[in-house]
Design goal:
heterodimer, A: seven-stranded mixed β-sheet, 15 strands, B: MetI-like fold, flat
Chain lengths: 455, 291
């Protein structure tokens, strides 16, 4: 009996230990201890001789912490990102930025876990538009109207970008950079065969044919991660049916079994595939692996965002130029894809003031100027000096300014689930163009299912 | 006194049982509940009855995944079992180098599945991969293909990697089983004039029956769990042709943020696995066959 009593007692103690361990504990303000080395002058007196000696003295300095998670995982943007953090820390020695970079695809999956954690990262990279709106509506993104106000961004940012960041009169997002999509091509190959930048679909097909006849694949693409196919759909649909129809399709207001969608596949996309204008086995390559075919000259064109030039070998990037995706129906308004990236502060941020200070820096002329100079990104802050822009940047700026409508991108304009189904549909179509009727019928079922649930 | 003696083991079990409840039973029950809801992982789950299951049985990707799991099971309970048993018999004797061969057949198992998946992705690479390069070098150009990008080959290409890994495992299980076979019985069969095949067919194989049951059931459970290789090599692509249930569930949950729908998939997967797990436990707890 005594033994039982003892066991129960022991058990009780263990349980109470377990329970206390589970109890909520206050989150301490994270303070990083760093050793700072400063030089101090120490005066030593020897008999009538005074010597000044410099001695290194170690001091403990408390620095407040801002946690910053970024998806800028490609080498060039990553380096620029790290440099920006360094610039901020130099300007604010009392704040230390804990910067981690997560691969783009992984970041998209991890962000929900970040945002719902009790101590989320303070500042994060994200996509402007619908993708940000989703989290704003859930109350997971902090209202940063005061930063917009204090930094004078309401004057310095164009209204289009303000609108992209504003929900019900309050600002939640900081758009910092955007890039255009276009058809990139090898200038030297075009010159070799006396080709010019095609303006219309007929001219584009003629260019493809000439290249094909000369043993060069007209187009390269890597569809391993599927989204590159979505660019083709975005552009063909916008050029054939107009941006308004396209964006309504993205919002679930038009149906995928609409005959207008079918034409995009049967009349424009399928001929490109059936004529073998694309490289072989695109599904085996990522977008950057497929770039190799353009670099080695076995393919001449690539429909891609401007980040293509980040990954192109620096000594050969001069051979690369781009043109607007050819016009198919001149009576249709011109739509372009120009995805905008930026930053936000998590609503549950444990260091809101310092996070806002970091955000203010990221939106400043200084930071944006750096990104524009180093990466050739287009800045959102109108105060950034654009006079030093390369002809390429100027051309991109004109491309977007000349557009009647600017879309974000297929997987940013529609819901994540619809984008997943849609891109699978594009992949299946690519491998079996004849199945397009079944594919679109299934996509339409998916659309009804998905958007019925959204209500 | 008698009463308290009965109580003691239970009091000792309380802590592990509570942990088991928190870490295993609780999440399981919660998944069952989630499968009846619509949940995006952020807001509160909304109860919607059996709607997820209704949708599941209309979803072609579900049936593609199920079919792929079946292909995986069928390949797994035949090829690695036959090869593993063959290797075990061949290497279960004192031939020179037997230890080296045992170790080398077992070595793929030491690699993590992610590493195996990556290595094989390179080997399958259509342009610079080992397999296509060798095929082209010996003039079989028409056999070279995009192994992981064509819907007809992709599933088998992934299953082949899984088999490559599984053979060593099965071999080790059978080698262990062979240690338990009494050599006297084999000698006795030889004295009775049985040839090698008859000895194997009528003496060794029946004695290995308990091992075989375990190997088969483990293979089935492993094929239902299949996820890592698919996720690393294709993520279920191209267009879901290599999707398996676990991968389908992962995409729905963490890519499309349909937690409720994904929970419904995992509930189905749970019931399929449960059947085989019960067979396994029932076999393991049975007394083994003795001669």
């Amino acid at each position: 009996m005594k033994r039982t009593l003892f066991t129960l007692l022991a058990l009780f103690m263990v349980m109470s230990l377990v329970l206390t361990a589970c109890g909520p504990t206050a989150t301490p303000q994270i303070i990083e201890k760093t050793v700072e080395v400063t030089k101090e002058v120490v005066v030593t007196k020897e008999v009538e001789v005074t010597k000044e000696v410099e001695v290194e003295v170690e001091k403990l300095v408390d620095r407040r912490v801002v946690i910053y998670n970024s998806y800028a995982s490609d080498p060039a943007p990553r380096a620029a990102d790290e440099e920006l953090v360094k610039m901020f820390e130099e300007a604010h020695p009392e704040i230390s930025v804990q910067h981690s970079t997560v691969a783009h695809e992984d970041f998209k999956q991890a962000i929900r876990a970040y945002l719902t954690a009790s101590t989320p990262p303070d500042v994060m990279t994200w996509f402007a538009g619908n993708r940000a709106r989703f989290f704003i509506d859930k109350g997971l993104i902090m209202d940063i109207s005061d930063v917009w106000e204090n930094e004078g961004w309401n004057e310095d940012y164009p209204t289009g970008f303000q609108a992209l960041s504003t929900v019900e009169g309050k600002q939640y997002f900081l758009p910092t950079s955007w890039y255009w999509w276009a058809v990139y091509y090898r200038k030297d190959i075009f010159e070799q065969y006396n080709l010019e930048e095609p303006q219309t679909w007929e001219e584009f097909l003629a260019v493809c044919e000439t290249l094909q006849d000369n043993g060069i694949k007209p187009l390269t693409i890597g569809t391993k991660y599927r989204w590159t196919t979505a660019a083709w759909f975005d552009y063909l649909n916008m050029r054939v049916n107009g941006p308004e129809f396209h964006i309504n399709l993205m919002l679930g207001k038009e149906s995928y079994d609409d005959p207008r969608v079918l034409t995009v596949f049967t009349d424009y996309w399928a001929p490109l595939i059936e004529n073998d204008y694309f490289i072989d086995d695109p599904a085996a390559y990522t977008w950057s692996e497929a770039l190799q075919f353009m670099v080695d000259g076995s393919a001449a064109m690539y429909l891609m965002g401007d980040f293509l030039r980040d990954s192109y070998p620096a000594d050969q990037v001069g051979q690369v130029d781009f043109f607007r995706f050819p016009i198919i129906d001149p009576s249709v308004p011109v739509g372009e894809d120009a995805p905008t990236d930026g930053f936000f502060v998590a609503a549950q941020s444990q260091h809101p003031e310092d996070a806002k200070a970091f955000l203010a820096f990221l939106g400043s002329v200084e930071a944006q100027q750096y990104n524009a100079d180093v990466l050739g990104r287009l800045p959102t802050n109108m105060k950034v000096d654009t006079s030093n822009f390369t002809p390429g940047q100027q051309k991109g700026l004109e491309l977007i300014q000349g557009a009647d409508f600017v879309a974000q991108f297929y997987d940013r304009d529609t819901t994540p689930e619809m984008a997943d189904k849609g891109m699978n549909g594009f992949m299946e179509f690519w491998a079996n163009p004849s199945r397009i009727n079944d594919i679109l019928a299934q996509l339409e079922l998916d659309r009804q299912e998905i958007f019925a649930e959204e209500q | 006194m008698l009463h308290s003696k009965k109580l003691v083991p239970y009091t000792f079990l309380i802590v592990p049982l509570i942990l088991y409840l928190i870490w295993v039973i609780g999440p399981m029950a919660y998944t069952f509940y989630l499968s009846l809801t619509k949940w995006d992982g952020l807001s509160e789950p909304v109860f919607r009855g059996l709607a997820n299951f209704e949708r599941l049985f209309r979803d072609p990707i579900f049936f593609t995944s199920l079919k792929n799991n079946l292909r995986w099971i069928i390949s797994f309970i035949t090829i690695p079992v036959v090869l593993g048993l063959g290797l075990a018999i061949a290497l279960n004797r004192a031939i020179p180098g037997a230890k080296f061969f045992k170790a080398s057949f077992y070595s793929p198992l030491v690699l993590s599945l992610v590493v195996s998946g990556l290595i094989w992705s390179w080997m399958y690479h259509p342009a610079g991969g080992l397999i296509n390069s060798v095929l082209r070098a010996v003039g079989l150009d028409n056999l070279a293909r995009g192994w992981l990008s064509e819907e007809t080959t992709v599933m088998w290409a992934i299953i082949a990697v899984a088999i490559w890994r599984q053979v060593g495992y099965v071999m080790v299980l059978y080698l262990a089983g062979l240690q338990g076979v009494d050599p006297q019985l084999i000698d006795a069969s030889k004295v009775d004039g049985a040839n090698a095949w008859n000895t194997f067919r009528h003496v060794i194989f029946p004695l290995l029956a308990p091992v075989t049951v375990i190997v088969v059931v483990i293979s089935i459970i492993d094929s239902l769990r299949a996820f890592d290789l698919v996720s690393v090599m294709t993520r279920g692509g191209p267009y879901n042709s290599s999707s398996v249930l676990a991968n389908f569930m992962y995409i729905e949950a963490f890519n499309n943020y349909k937690m409720g729908y994904a929970a419904a998939i995992s509930v189905i997967l749970f019931f399929i696995s449960a059947v085989f797990i019960f067979i396994y436990l029932w076999r393991v707890t049975q007394d083994e066959l003795e001669y």
